[in-house]
Amino acid sequence: MSSDRSMWPYTFVRPGGFHFEISVPVWLIMQRFQQSEMHMAEAGGVLLGRHLRDGSAIIVDDITTPLSGDRRARVRFFRAQRRHQAIIDEAWRTSNGTCTYLGEWHTHPEPIPTPSAVDWTDWQRRLISDQYSEPIFFVIVGTKHTSAWEGRRDGGIVPLSLIQR
Ligand SMILES: [Zn+2]
To answer: Which residues surround the ion ligand 1 when the cut-off is CB under 5 Å?
Structure first.
């Protein structure tokens, strides 16, 4: 990533042309967990943010990062659901219901991240079991690229394309 890149939100185009945006502060946090060194474990957490009222964009304003109770390995990340849920609930309360659960993120030790079989299974399960307003997003932070997918309650998951600046 060039230093210029970090000055922009990480913006993807959704089906229908609307945007899914990872804000600069969140992108800076994600970069700290990029598995650029062999010894670094997978990291991840939940995405928190808002739907712009005019519908033009859904913006990630905050994320959770690995918490105690999470188990981290080079190619696996297990989230301690209850602690992350407490943060989601707190964000909802303190924002008067504007800051909401938007999905999940985790890192992969590969330049261009591809979802693993475990990721697909996990995502499908979340689409059915998680509480959210459609859609939810799945972000994988690779060592060079970051990719995002959008999921719907009917089980459909589509990759989003990054807007190049
Ligand atoms: Zn994965």
So the answer is: 116, 119
